[in-house]
Specification:
The protein is mainly alpha-helical and 154 residues long. The protein contains 9 helices and no strands.
Length: 154
Amino acid sequence: MSLKQIKSHDPIYSILVRISLLLFILFTGWLIWEHFINRPQEIKYYLSANTAFKDKHYDTSLEQYLKAYEYNNEDVYIIEGIARSYMQLDDFKNAEKYFNRAIKLDPEFAPSYANLGVFYDRQKDYDNAIKFYEKALSLDQELYIGMHWIDRLL
């Protein structure tokens, strides 16, 4: 008897195949639901803001970050995104305000210090820039490497 004949006559094999297919379909459906349909509004705004920022549409990124902020004003990533957008738009007063808010909210979040260093660097305040770069590196020694290429791709 060949393997094909055994598989076609074995009821347990047939049941296991059907269960596997059913579980695959259920998992795929759940994944689509959670990732695309049932996503919280703040996440949709945040991801839209990140995309706009990467595409150098800073007005749009700021608008989307601020919408996300309305849903969650305690998210350091959203606040830091607002600060970076303001900085790119040369609104230095608001940029500094939001960078400081992010640092106050999470004093261990190294990207806020690094970006505040960039902020001071652009203001030609090199002493403060170095101070914040050093603080960022003291919190996260791998920060100087930057984002991994897979993170950038995703």
